[in-house]
Amino acid sequence: MNSATAKGKNNNNWDRSVRGFNESLDVSLQAPPLNQTHSRVSCPSGWSGNPSNTRCFKFVASNESWDESEKQCTSYDGHLAAVTSLQELFVLQKLCSENSEACWVGGRVINENWKWSDNASYWNESISPIHSGCTNQSCFSNNLTDLCTLMINGSASLVAQIRNKRRKRSRKLSNPAELALVPPSWKVFTREELKSITKNFSEGNRLLGDAKTGGTYSGLLPDGSRVAVKRLKRSSFQRKKEFYSEIGRVARLHHPNLVAIKGCCYDHGDRYIVYEFIVNGPLDRWLHHLPRGGRTLDWAVNEKVATSLAQGIAFLHDKVKPQVVHRDIRAANVLLDEEFGAHLMGVGLSKFVPWEVMHERRVMAGGTHGYLAPEFVYRNELTTKSDVYSFGVLLLEIVSGRRPAQAVDSVGWQSIFEWATPLVQSHRYLELLDPLISSSSSSVIPEAGTIQKVVDLVYSCTQHVPSMRPRMSHVVHQLQQLAQPPSLK
Question: Which residue intervals define the domain Protein kinase in the entry (predicted)?
Fold first, then answer.
């Protein structure tokens, strides 16, 4: 986002770029009118004013990186845009919705390794300060640098005036859950709207999924586009602001291998999330609930599923700042499109899963831990390396067609690694392959060496010590190498 100044009698107050700010921006969380001592400005043609006509905002087309856009900003004698009230925030949202199909809003205090993401990263961080939960005045000293808010889009950058104001004293900031910004493509639905598009949540519209968390239904929007409406279990512990804040945070994450959030609804404790509709449904169904006569996922398709899923996770870990830990990577949360590309669902929303369901997942049948990393099971620690572990389990599930825990007559319940490890140790790699692939006359059977390389990656991802597990970007590279034709390797 760039910013520029409309010419006015206070123009001399706007002569510093945000990188040089040493004074603090007065950010109001209760949306009062701006300080009436600010002079009103007359916005130039093509610019829009804020509610009290003390600032002007405008879109300027820009496909450049943030650094390049910032140079354009200074050519307008301007600064990076910031807001001083919730009213101004609504102005920015309205401008964005009128000028582009999507925009993202974010910010952070610039004395904490400050760097804006470029237009390939979309989202940098929550708009609240790093210490927004702190109530001690020492957390917000006079030396705290400005809290800035920006919008970036691949085809548009917002340009805005900004007035810099010295904070007279330390002040306490509360967590601005109300400021969780909603991209224009992200809608707050009413319950009646959801009932209408899902035919009153009819059984005929119910999609396969985990009913323990509430159930998912297909829906048809008035414009003819299909969506999936996930109904969450009722919760008396989460308020509307908190729910919208979390949904808004996740809705800003855009990647081809993430399921996009289209909107949500909160109605007297009933919570719904509206997702884009992914036509081929959950991977879990293709691996374990294949309908009679249904198509088996062959080896090439499995490679594509694994690689595209890994790309989505790598985006969360490496491109989003701060990093996003998914926390719940499993076959039921991976949806397949018409070309069998993977789309990861439920990013950042594991906190909406009821406690009893999460506890059940921690200790699955027979005491196995399923997709969950040991550091989470035993120490409640979750990092990006926990996601890597879960991906490793899922990768072995894709290769073998077996669930993470499966009933076996001789031993009761058996984890997928208890089954696989003896085969790996005796180099019987072909026996690890999903029987539906190995017995199919139309499937190309991979060589034992290819299966071995995938299994080696599985065991690398699921090492007991988290720091020994690879980054997801490395996993993506390894899978892409395996998928190349022999002549290109």
Answer: 202-488
